[in-house]
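In response to the reviewer comment on reproducibility (Comment 2.3), we provide here a single inverse folding case reported in full, input and output, so that an independent group could reproduce the run without further information from us. The C-alpha cells appear first.
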C-alpha cells in the first residue's frame, strides 16, 4: 500500500513544504510529489509506495543495475564505464582501509563490485533485496542476504559501501543504526548518492532523471546527508566526485524530454565544469567513520 508520511523520515519533524512534482519515466509514467523538511532540509518522496508495493516499480529491462542489460546506447555506455569505476571504487576503499579487509556492500545488485574486491583479497558480504539481482550475484559465488537485518548480529566490517542505495531504503533510521553497529570502531562507510543541488539537477528541474521517483525515496544534498549521518554517530571525513554521473544522468534526462545526445554531453560537461568550483557534482561519494 502507499505510505503517506506525516513526519520527516530522517529527523521526525512534522513541518514540511512542497518541493516539486516529478514523473516516473522508467516504469509507470505516474507523477509523484516531493516535500522538504522544514527542520533538516531533507527532500523526500511523499506519498510513496510501501515496501510491499515498491517492487513493481523496478520491473523494467532498462533498470541496468538489476539486470546487467546492454540494450540501448545509454546502457551500453553504462557498462563500458563500469569496469573503470569498479576499479576506482576498490582503490578508494583500499586507501581508506590501508589493505584488503572485511567489506559489506549494501544493495550490491548483481555483485560486480563485490566480485572485483574479492578478486583482490577482500572478505566480502553483500545485501540485495531484489531476488533476480541476488540470484545473479549468487551465481558469481558471492554471499548475499536480502537485508542488513539478516546479517549476523556479532559480525563487524572494516568498510561498508552503499553505491546509490541509501536513497532507496524505506527503513532509513533503522538501517543506519544497524550499519553503525556493523561497522568496526575506526571503520569507514562510503555512501554514494545523487546531489539535488548539482548544476545538472538545476538545469533539468523536475525532469532531472536522478529524482527517479518512486524508486528514490530521498533526494539528498550534502548538508542534509551529513546531518543525518552525524545524528547516527558517524563522523564526516569528506567526499569524492563521481564525474561520469553528470553525463549518464544528463543522457537519461535528455532522453525523457526528447533531447539529443549532444545536448546531454554539453550538460554533463557544464555540470562538471561548475562543480570544479562549487564541489557540487551530479553524484558524490560521502565518506564517514565510526569513532
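Designed residues, in position order:
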Amino acid at each position: 500500500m502507499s505510505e503517506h508520511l506525516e513526519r520527516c523520515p530522517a529527523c521526525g519533524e512534522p513541518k514540511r513544504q512542497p518541493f516539486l512534482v516529478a514523473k516516473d519515466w522508467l516504469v509507470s509514467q505516474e507523477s509523484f510529489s516531493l516535500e522538504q523538511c522544514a527542520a533538516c532540509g531533507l527532500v523526500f518522496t511523499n506519498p510513496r509506495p510501501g515496501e510491499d508495493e515498491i517492487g513493481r516499480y523496478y520491473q523494467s529491462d532498462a533498470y541496468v543495475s538489476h539486470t546487467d542489460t546492454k540494450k540501448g546506447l545509454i546502457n551500453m555506455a553504462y557498462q563500458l564505464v563500469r569496469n573503470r569505476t569498479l576499479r576506482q571504487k576498490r582503490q578508494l576503499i583500499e586507501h581508506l582501509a590501508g589493505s584488503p579487509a572485511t567489506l559489506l556492500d549494501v544493495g550490491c545488485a548483481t555483485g560486480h563490485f563485490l566480485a572485483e574486491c574479492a578478486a583482490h583479497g577482500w572478505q566480502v558480504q553483500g545485501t540485495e533485496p531484489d531476488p533476480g539481482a541476488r540470484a545473479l550475484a549468487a551465481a558469481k559465488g558471492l554471499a548475499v542476504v536480502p537485508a542488513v537485518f539478516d546479517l549476523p548480529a556479532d559480525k563487524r566490517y572494516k568498510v561498508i559501501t552503499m553505491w546509490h542505495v541509501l536513497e532507496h531504503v524505506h527503513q532509513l533510521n533503522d538501517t543506519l543504526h544497524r550499519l553503525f553497529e556493523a561497522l568496526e570502531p575506526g571503520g569507514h562507510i562510503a555512501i554514494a548518492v545523487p546531489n539535488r543541488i548539482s548544476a545538472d539537477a538545476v538545469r533539468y528541474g523536475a525532469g532531472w532523471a536522478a529524482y527517479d521517483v518512486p524508486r528514490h525515496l530521498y533526494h539528498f544534498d550534502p548538508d542534509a546527508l551529513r546531518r543525518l549521518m552525524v545524528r547516527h554517530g558517524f563522523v564526516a571525513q569528506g567526499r569524492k566526485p563521481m564525474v561520469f554521473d553528470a553525463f549518464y544522468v544528463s543522457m537519461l534526462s535528455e532522453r525523457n524530454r526528447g533531447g539529443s545526445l549532444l545536448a546531454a554531453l554539453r550538460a554533463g560537461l557544464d555540470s562538471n565544469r561548475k562543480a570544479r568550483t562549487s564541489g557540487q557534482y551530479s553524484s558524490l561519494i560521502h565518506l564517514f567513520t565510526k569513532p
